Amino acid sequence: xxxxxxxxxxxxxxxxxxxxxxxxxxxxxxxxxxxxxxxxxxxxxxxxxxxxxxxxxxxxxxxxxxxxxxxxxxxxxxxxxxxxxxxxxxxxxxxxxxxxxxxxxxxxxxxxxxxxxxxxxxxxxxxxxxxxxxxxxxxxxxxxxxxxxxxxxxxxxxxxxxxxxxxxxxxxxxxxxxxxxxxxxxxxxxxxxx
Length: 194
Known about the structure:
Elements (H helix, E strand, L loop, with lengths): L2 H5 L6 H7 L4 H10 L7 H23 L3 H23 L16 H60 L7 H14 L7
Helix pairs in contact: 2-3, 4-5
């Protein structure tokens, strides 16, 4: 097992790389430490790979939006990441210089990560604003529909109240009821409204 053979399995997890060399993880870690690799670089290399992928997404947006300046910057950043990844593949022990309380990445890679993070965060904020705006317009539409249906139901309630006022207990209409009342009032002088 040499540094070059380790570089060929660097994109595998530590357990998978140990299996590739037919040894357990504890023995594999010890062997890596003797070769100058303090930590297995899988997570850091995957982070670099994801950073490269995010840059390709931003590059695609720049090409769609005809933003030449953004396109040039994205291509330059992608080239920096490619160069750094090639350097790491040639010597995995270079990653040790960014552990143990020191910076996690070189300055130029940190700057790229910060740029991508800010763009991603800005995109999330824009999406949240759009979602809030859509939700608000849906609420307004629902409220307008609800108000219209409430108005219709109030009309229906008024009509049903009027209908119930027009019928007495026996089911006679209001005209018949009024006619009966007048006749009773005329016939009996001491008629009181009950």
